[in-house]
């Protein structure tokens, strides 16, 4: 499930002890010789493994000098296999911009409007707990301003998907309608649609359902037809009910939200993708994420009007009754429709996509003109003192910030990614 992220501290993985190992890709196009000068990124990858307990982490940089791939740790702690550039992995909420792009393309074709209400396409589905599908628009779903509760934060469901209970429920299949109902059985995050930003996977499940209602086809098929094939993506797809990853892939690991310093690490590679679906169920590669995000930043997938919609940003928080501001997502970010900007600790702003899922964190970020990009994946989700968000941000800052300017990121609140 594209999961809620609890605030925890002091988590140090000791069940997995690995030595950092830099690996060069076998293909010349992916070797360090193509784009030298990324020693700080390699150091950050190595530290994620040796200091942070990550089983393995990779990054691929693309800039005017070429392409560079680096990795540390292993793809499989049992066999010691090294990570490779073509490896596929679960990308969590980095699936959202794929869904958003399809919706925006449909808007460009006149088949729907971002001002359409949810009730227009899914009549009667969104109701209860002060939710009204007649006042929530497609735009509200895409930029997380709907106020609909994030189903990943539902206490009953979260209990199934944290700790050892996850092992019993890892293959549970969830129809999209069930995920929506889970979200709607909880109070709204704020009173009126548009009054604030609270990250909600439920909104993207609804967006995926609208795509299927408008087109009469599956969301997976529309992503394949509109994005994957035109861009020549070779390792990207939205699974159905299958629980294994197709093709070459690293193992995915998790502490299942345990906070103990000696938390056990579980292999969570095989799992149902239906718990994330349009909000976080996709699989991809670092190379594919580069191509996709570069196309988004450069306006290659959308006409100008819809491109402006995608990059119309909102602040990621809400104004409290006393007038103060409360961050509800990653601090120093703004959010568009599936994409976000992130001001790093050195003041540099990067743009792109990111996601977390049980088994890892993935980001693909870069300059607004896409001339300088990095994609990264760490195959563990952990949220304590050594947490996966910090590891990912450290890699980003190693590439985009002057040496020594990196600072620890703040923990994600319980709103998910």
TrEMBL record:
Q: Please give the InterPro entries that the UniProt record associates with this protein.
A: AmpC-like, Beta-lactam-related, Beta-lactam/transpept-like
Which SUPFAM superfamilies would you find in this protein's record?
beta-lactamase/transpeptidase-like
What keywords tag this UniProt record?
A: Carboxypeptidase, Hydrolase, Protease, Signal
Q: Sorted alphabetically, which Gene3D superfamilies does this protein's record hold?
A: DD-peptidase/beta-lactamase superfamily (3.40.710.10)
Query: Does Signal count among this protein's keywords?
Result: yes
The GO terms describing molecular function are: carboxypeptidase activity
Please state the span of the N-terminal signal peptide per the UniProt entry.
1-24
* Pfam short name (any one): Beta-lactamase
Per UniProt, residues of the Beta-lactamase-related domain are 42-372
Q: Which domain of life is it from?
A: Bacteria
Under which name does UniProt file this protein?
Answer: D-alanyl-D-alanine carboxypeptidase
Species name for this entry?
Answer: Streptosporangium canum
């Amino acid at each position: 499930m594209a999961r809620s992220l609890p605030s925890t501290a002091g988590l140090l993985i000791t069940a997995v002890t690995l030595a950092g190992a830099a690996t060069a890709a076998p293909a010349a196009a992916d070797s360090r010789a193509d784009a030298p000068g990324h020693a700080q990124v390699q150091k950050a990858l190595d530290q994620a493994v040796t200091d942070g307990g990550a089983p393995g982490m990779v990054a691929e940089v693309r800039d005017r000098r070429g392409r560079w791939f680096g990795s540390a740790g292993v793809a499989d702690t049992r066999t010691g296999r090294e990570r490779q550039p073509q490896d596929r992995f679960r990308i969590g909420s980095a699936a959202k911009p794929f869904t958003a792009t399809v919706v925006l393309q449909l808007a460009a074709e006149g088949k729907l409007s971002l001002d359409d209400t949810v009730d227009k396409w899914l009549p009667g589905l969104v109701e209860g707990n002060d939710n009204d599908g007649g006042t929530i628009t497609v735009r509200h779903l895409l930029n997380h301003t709907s106020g609909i509760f994030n189903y990943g934060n539902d206490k009953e469901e979260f209990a199934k998907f944290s700790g050892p209970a996850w092992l019993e429920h890892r293959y549970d299949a969830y129809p999209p309608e069930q995920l929506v109902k889970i979200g709607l059985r909880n109070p709204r995050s704020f009173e009126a649609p548009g009054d604030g930003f609270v990250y909600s996977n439920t909104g993207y499940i609804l967006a995926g359902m609208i795509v299927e209602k408008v087109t009469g086809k599956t969301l997976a098929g529309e992503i394949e037809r509109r994005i994957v094939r035109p861009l020549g993506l070779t390792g990207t797809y939205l699974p159905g009910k299958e629980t294994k990853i197709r093709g070459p892939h690293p193992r995915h690991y998790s502490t299942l939200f345990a906070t103990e310093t000696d938390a056990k690490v579980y292999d969570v590679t095989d799992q149902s993708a239906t718990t994330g679906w349009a909000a976080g169920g996709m699989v991809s590669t670092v190379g594919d994420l580069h191509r996709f995000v570069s196309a988004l930043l450069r306006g290659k997938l959308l006409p100008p009007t819809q491109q402006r919609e995608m990059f119309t940003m909102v602040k990621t928080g809400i104004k409290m009754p006393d007038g103060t501001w409360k961050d509800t997502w990653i601090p120093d970010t703004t959010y568009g429709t599936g994409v976000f900007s992130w001001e790093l600790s050195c003041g540099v702003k990067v743009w792109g996509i990111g996601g977390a899922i049980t088994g890892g964190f993935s980001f693909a970020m870069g300059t607004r003109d896409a001339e300088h990009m990095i994609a990264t994946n760490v195959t563990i989700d952990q949220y304590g003192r050594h947490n996966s968000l910090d590891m990912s941000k450290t890699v980003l800052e190693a590439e985009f910030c002057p040496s020594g300017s990196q600072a620890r990121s703040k923990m994600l609140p319980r709103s998910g990614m």
